[in-house]
Amino acid sequence: MLSARTVLTRTARLSNARLNSTLVVAEHDETKLAPITLNAITAAGKLGNDVSVLVTGANAQKVAEQVAKVNGVKRVLVAQDDKLKNNLPERVAPVVLASQKQFNFSAITAGSSAFGRGLIPRVAAKLDVSSISDITQVHSADSFTRTLYAGNAVKKVKSSAAVKLLTFRGTAFEPAKEGGSGAVEKAPSADIATDTSEFLGQELSKSERPDLATAKIVVSGGRGLKSGDNFKLIYELADKLGAGVGASRAAVDAGYVPNDMQVGQTGKIVAPELYIAIGISGAIQHLAGMKDSKTIVAINKDPDAPIFQVADIGLKADLFKAVPELTAALK
Hints:
This protein is of the alpha/beta class. It has helices spanning about 5-20, 35-45, 60-70, 90-105, 115-125, 230-240, 250-255, 285-290, 305-310, 320-330; strands spanning about 20-25, 50-55, 75-80, 105-110, 130-140, 145-150, 155-160, 165-170, 185, 215-220, 245, 275-280, 295-300, 315. The strands form two sheets. The chain has a nine-stranded mixed sheet with strand order 7-6-5-8-4-1-2-3-9, sandwiched between helices.
């Protein structure tokens, strides 16, 4: 028979175990896990806590089984409901809050993607705490470095909140590897309202080229290409290199290419081995999305273009002459 002191001690230990745990909200397409979630799992592990992952969706079980095999994941919570199809932040948030109510996580996190940036501040508001976005370093469970001003500055911040609401910059952390055996269980039930948001549809670009988020080489074009037709110069060079294709916001706003190709603070954040910027001036907004690339090459006829300040290799030249010559020279 256990004494009252023993029961209290064991209860306290269980309570502490709950408090010292981090929840990562998974991003996926109902078939496979988004790469940025693997980066977020690595970052969450640096908080020094057990890592749980919440997988929501109309068909969440398959993805949950993938997550359970990721190294460092202790528990996978699955919320499978037709109401969660397409994972609208307004509908995922109640599931996160129900999970928090049951498990009392010390941190709730996600990747700094459109999904994470739409969800985490919403949950933070419901919990009446502030969220910290775009974290690039984890120093301790309550101390972080984040990027500011479109990536042009960094700031070290410390949070005293009982629960931290965080999004991690994917390019700042290595993706978590396979090798885990997390337990899969049903997430707490939640009241999911369907009258405040509706999914109308989406248009996805299909390409045989590598995905921007995972490509080892990225070739991006800017407003200097002058038209969408001229982007064929970018595509031809990318195909020779086996590269993904990106664009500046100026090129997207001009209608040269679809917005899912945009690299920058309000687009995709990439950090390939090689980034080639062609006809891109190098506005701060664009630099925020690619400045962590290992090697940056810039081709621009303007010698004062800001892109040359971050480029490892710069070529002052007319892109309409230089790019075809470069493409022709590649085997």
